[in-house]
Amino acid sequence: MATGARRLLLRLAMEPPLRLLIRAALLMGLPASCQTRALWDISTRPAYLMGVLEAAKQAIAQEIPAISVIEFGVGGGDGLATLQSEAEAVERHTGVAIEVYGFDRGGLPPLIGDYRDHPDVWQAGDYPMDERSVRSRLTARTKLIVGDVKDTLPRFFERFRPAPVGFVAFDMDLYSSTREALRIFTLADKQMLRHVPLYFDDIGHLFDHKYAGELLAIEEFNQGSKGVKIDRWYEVHVGRPFPEQHFLERLYVAHDLAAISGTDRSAVSDARA
Question: Are 173 and 73 in contact (CB under 8 A)?
Fold first, then answer.
């Protein structure tokens, strides 16, 4: 089938009500590639699948054979298990090796800070972790790092020698914890792709605003960091069957400006293909 005809059929498939029928068919278990599942949101965490797949594409463009994907805030482990599963699928699809890491302190800290940590919403000890249960769901691909992120993160690159960071999901609820987790992009020995997709779970509620929580952590990070900046993933909804999905508004990108300064134009062209 000619490329033009394929594009026309895809556009028709994305139109209501056909888009609902197509997605229902995919949900029934019809064979679908990672690319198709990412386009149609066929995942328990579609943002995770999108982020990991895009990271693998970036790695190919940069000729990097392996990447790391990370979840900050593991809780009951559902997100980390999904990240692990999608990493396996994307690795098979792209050939890029993918390591998975999860950070958690075992629950929210015993002391919640001022308004920036939303003490009106979160309470000390929320989201306790059953560490044994979580670890039982993990394969050799995935490492669970338990402890306060301000203590465990500084030694991360030295201790684990991870592949360059390709995707990060932040689900730590608190401003203070997110602020510490964002330091992964400022550590002296960090390794990261030029453009790292990010997902922030806690920026879509009524109580969220840029003076507290994850949004404040992002703003302060950008004010203090010179080499890396975080911005929205612009037009991520364009060309998607369900552009109204709320998770799309929570996708950002960490741009390594220092590395981009030395990029040749051929690499940029490859990444845009």
Answer: yes
- The two tokens of residue 207 are 């109580």
CB 157 within 8 A of CB 192: no
Assess whether 4 and 81 both reside in one domain.
Answer: no
How far are the Cα atoms of 10, 49, 82, 117, 163 from residue 70, in angstroms, in the given order? 32, 12, 12, 22, 11
Q: How far apart are CA 14 and CA 23, in angstroms?
A: 10
Do residue 124 and residue 206 come from a single domain? yes
Looking at the domain assignment, is residue 4 inside a domain? yes
Question: Helix H segments across the chain?
Answer: 3-13, 18-27, 34-40, 46-61, 78-94, 131-136, 149-152, 156-160, 175-181, 213-224, 257-260, 265-272
Range of the domain at 24: 1-31
Lowest-pLDDT range, 1-15, 75-89, 116-130?
1-15
Which pTM was predicted? 0.89
* Residues 162, 99 contacting (CB under 8 angstroms): yes
Residues, the chain? 273
